Amino acid sequence: MQDRTSDQEIGSQFDVIIIGAGISGMYQLYRLRKLGLTVRVFETGKDVGGTWYWNRYPGARFDSESYSYGYSFSEELLQEWEWQEHFSAQPETLRYLNYVADKFDLRKDIVFESPIKSASYEKAENLWLVTSDKGHTSSARFLITAIGPISAPTLPNIEGLDSYKGEAYHTGNWPHEPVDFRHKRVGIIGTGATGVQVIQEVAKTVGHLTVFQRSPNYCAPLGNSAIDEPTQKKIKASYPEIFKRCSETHGAFLHKADPRSAFDVTSEERQAFYEKLYAEPGFGIWMGNFRDVLVDKRANDTMNEFMARKIRERVTDPEIAEQLIPINHGFGTRRIPMETNYYEVYNQDNVKLVDLNEEPIRSITPLGILTESGEYEFDIIIYATGFDAVTGSFDKIDIRGEGGRRLKDKWSDGPKTYLGLQSAGFPNMLTLVGPHNAATFCNIPRCIEQNVDWVTDLILFMRDQNLVKVVASEAAEEEWTEHVLETAEKMLFAKVDSWFMGINKNLAHKRKRRFLLYAGGSPAYRERCNEVAADNYRGFQLE
Ligand code: NA7
Question: Is the C-beta atom of 506 inside 6 A of ligand 1?
């Protein structure tokens, strides 16, 4: 890794500053450098990878088919890289991103260990001033945020958190050294997509494991396996079809919704279809289900019954099985955790499930966790308690636009953007995977590439037309925000508490329910972005 932390390097002016060296920041750097622009990326971590750099917890892996997840922009890269598993584990994914950084010599323009604390738009110079935590300031015409939608971890708001004397880790900030669970008493709080992954992995070697569950989720089998040689060859020969299929599906996954209603078929056919989806690898059960399962309560209930039956079949103790069946939301209305023998973990003698609805946590103590029923002592506590999703990573930076207006204040009642790519009053700032952007609800690299390509084209267009300032109009922003919220209202998840809806009970301030993603689907979003560009960037004011 090159050292780029000298004052001389940092205190300079660039055409573009990118915050974040994860999947989007890396690709954005690659594209802009090719245009001959001067670009500098500032990254908090010691190396590239973003999500895959921080989330090193045991069990972290893709829920997307690996070959649908990698970058598509380089045929050479596609042919060189060989995914080892259908759903790659975090170490391999991080190796892949390092390989990309090496291959395209990306690190020379990245300043590591440099969290950006503030960014302000200076009207007189039409520049963004960006300051790192070390107090170094750099400037650029364009500011591109590539800070990730799920990158601001939140610890639980439980009294006594700091008093605990054992080892404690949040999954989103996992140590670089391996953590040994053998013969250890481990407590885990959280049973979302992350909790499920970490629980099933830790359970393999742990001395004793206690899972603290506030809300169970409907979890579906991942169906992971190694990729054999003939399949590897087939994958390499099929990339055009793989990416074409992703471009046609709602969430840019390989799975396409079934055009039938759950009630177009007999009850036997429906059960057979659900069994087939349950046995198939990946998100098919969520993304490839009947078209009305996520929008019609009656259709959704047929899936709830099916999933509850599966849990009862797999968990030996009927009381524990009931505790693992969600009662406060329907199938797929929250993020589906993908699992491998997750439910069977609760059949192990050395695993205990604590239902926090029956036995709430009172506090964290120096020795462990105190509930209404008594104290549990641990050697290690794992917090799989989630993130301040989508807007949390923006809130961590003091971003000020025209007139010194703070982005955090502007978004206090919910984000407002145009296409999820810009917010009015923040000229020349572009938000990759920003709120209300389809990339937030997507097989993310597929939508990241769309975002980055669109932003690159905009910058190229401005250069060709001698334009120096782009800012979304209030009217375009209003119209997009309304469209985003209206689209979400049709979905069952709009009525359920989850990070999709901006609900995070650990934050000190209570928020209004506010949809953070875009549910209109990636093809419609892409079409809209293309139309806007073709119409001379309609809705943006260009100077
Ligand atoms: P999630 O999906 O937000 O899950 C967080 C989990 O932690 C969830 O089960 C929460 O219960 C639980 N939680 C959070 N705070 C507490 C407290 N204070 N007490 C008890 N339990 C708590 O985060 P993940 O990291 O699993 O997944 C985030 C995304 O990352 C995921 O969707 C993927 O796309 C990648 P709750 O449900 O709120 O009752």
Answer: yes
Nearest to 222 by CA among 150, 307, 284: 284
> What residue segments make up the domains of the chain, in order of their start?
7-48+106-152+389-542
pLDDT tens readout for residues 295-327: 999 999 999 999 999 999 999 999 999 999 999
Burial class (CB in 10 A: 0-12, 13-18, 19+), 226: exposed
* C-alpha distance from residue 299 to each of 75, 269, 293 (Å): 42, 14, 5
Atom of ligand 1 nearest to the CA of 172: 25
Rounded Cα distance, 439 and 25, in Å: 14
Give me the sign of the Cα torsion angle 44, 47, 53, 57.
negative
CA 383–ligand 1 middle distance (angstroms): 9
Return d(Cα 25, Cα 27) in angstroms, integer.
6
**What is the number of the ligand 1 atom nearest to the C-alpha of 193?**
26
**422 in Cβ contact with 471 (< 8 Å):** yes
Ligand 1 atom 4: residue of nearest CA: 192
Question: Is the distance from CB of 433 to CB of 8 less than 8 angstroms?
Answer: no
195 CA: nearest ligand 1 atom: 26
pLDDT band at 11 (very low <50, low <70, confident <90, very high): low
What's the CA gap between 262 and 378, in Å, rounded? 46
Give the span between the Cα atoms of 302 and 307, in whole angstroms: 9
pLDDT digits (tens, 9 = 90+) for 1-10: 334 444 444 4
Q: Is 158 in the pocket of ligand 1 (CB under 6 A)?
A: yes
Residue-level pLDDT at 4: 43
* pLDDT, tens digit, 9 for 90 and up, residues 110-124: 999 999 999 999 999
356 lines ligand 1 (CB under 6 A): yes
Confirm or reject: Cβ of 193 under 6 Å from ligand 1: yes
- DSSP single-letter state for residue 186: E
- The pTM score is 0.96
Does any ligand 1 atom lie closer than 6 A to the CB of residue 190? yes
SS3 call for 313: helix
pLDDT at 508 over 90: no
Residue 211 identity: V
Pick the atom of ligand 1 nearest to 150's CA. 30
Instruction: Provide the CATH topology of domain 7-48+106-152+389-542.
Output: FAD/NAD(P)-binding domain (3.50.50)
214 lines ligand 1 (CB under 6 A): yes
